[in-house]
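FAQ: What does a ligand-bound record look like?

Like this one, built around FE2/S2 (inorganic) cluster:
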Amino acid sequence: MTKKTYQELRSARWFAPDDVRSFGHRSRVMQLGYGPQDWEGKPVIAILNTWSDIGTCHGHFKQRVEDVKRGVLQAGGFPLELPALSLSESLVKPTTMLYRNMLAMDVEELLRSHPIDGAVLMGGCDKTTPGLVLGALSAGVPFIYMPAGPMLRGNVKGKILGSGSDTWKYWDERRAGKINATQWLEVEGGIARSHGHCMTMGTASTMTGIAEAIGLTLPGASSIPAVDSNHIRMATECGRRAVSMVWEDLTPAKMLSRASFENAITVAMAMGCSTNAIIHLVAMSRRAGEHCAVGLDDFDAASRRVPVIANIRPSGDTYLMEDFYYAGGMLGMMSVLKDHLKLDALTVTGKPLGENLVGAEVYNHDVIRPLDNPIYAEGALAVLRGNLAPDGCVIKPSACAPQYLQHTGPALVFDDYPSMKAAVDDENLDVTADHIMILRNAGPQGGPGMPEWGMLPIPLKLVKQGVKDMLRISDARMSGTSYGACILHVAPEAYIGGPLALVKTGDLITVDVPARSIHLEVSDDELALRRAAWTAPPKRFERGYGWMSARHIQQADTGCDFDFLETSFGAPIGEPDIY
Ligand code: FES
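The answer part, i.e. the structure of the complex:
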């Protein structure tokens, strides 16, 4: 492998020339206390840190960034921490998804505009992984992803609690009067008890696992719990490796191929992944270039081929990410999946995936199941199409009651979240377990930002009857920790006039998951009349980022990226050369 020389580094353009501009760069870096020993002959490694006082899942990043810096210094690099947009899933309204592309733009421009040769990306909470990766892919410099790691299992009075999943479960119990306010508060205090991201197989664990499967993390990195000392050593190794990647010129353009993203789909299916994974992975693959692009049909095909073998909640019913790590983690799981993976796909180690898996083992075959004893033989995700969703929608069959996989029922339609929320608590609501609840105008533009409203609450009347699941359809997303017969991501969305906008309460809808179809049982003539009478809802934004997002965000089936960011991948990062 030919090594880059110092003069070939991007940062040398800022620091090396004997001219007045470089005088300015050097003198102002010296103002910070650095000297030529810090930069001469050394790659500058940006450490993009999504820490903030309100970044709940990244509380350890203030310390961890020092661990990464240590690694960069050990390897002869110049570490610089740059703060990036902190997106705390549980606190940002209406949804962090609205800001995923903002983080991506933040990252791309931070890397492009500064004297940066390579990067370590520090993220983990749901949208931080795709946001960081999307931006870094477009910036094009060598980078490595440092996952935050899952938090420890939740615990209340000796009972294990899982992020999100137990929130919904205990909330339903409280609504049904089965637990009291004091018991509810005890759950509140025990469900998130250490640093790290959600420890169910929700969006965070899915996305960090996907980052590893693409080849963007050190082997095994995504499974290490945030508070494990192995996590500190992994962070330091990220710093060291980022320096080597710069000298090796291991850019994403040289590293990634369609095989990298196909591996990610395979792993996602085996994990019983969050439905959010589809949107983010599609977006990431499209940023990586046309030759890497994957789509909904690739997920559906993989779902039929790859069994769910990670017995982790919410697809599983007992174990959490801490158990997954002790059972062998992502490396162990990928060793089981070997025959389904493209082992020659290159990774940040500079080696193909297959070499990274040498020696990987599973230590608990109930947590990471063998292929011939999966928790679901197929069906982590299914893509449905029909007159209600011409561009597709998704369901997670592994997390829903089997009777809803083939079902016809009357629609119960809500145009917005507040009216739906008020109705479900009305004990006189005209609803049965056969109804199909619909929430619309909750998509990429309508939400705005496609909030995680797709697991519509079961109406109180039915909860009290013991109903635990029913069919629900929306153009929203749902949390990766959610479960139930929820059909999501309907495209095109209702807000822009997709067929979902034309449904009326009482219309019959047929869902057939084995046949991958979803059909509104209304004649084409009647639908044409309804379309002629349809008027677009009022605009959500008149100014600002929301205004820009509404004009440029694409639909769920193509990843919700901004149209103007989907430029050809691999364009040289050298735009600043002209300044
Ligand atoms: Fe951050 Fe769940 S709230 S990962």
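Follow-up question: can I read anything off the structure? Yes, for example: Residues 382-533 form a domain with the Glucose Oxidase; domain 1 fold (CATH 3.50.30.80).
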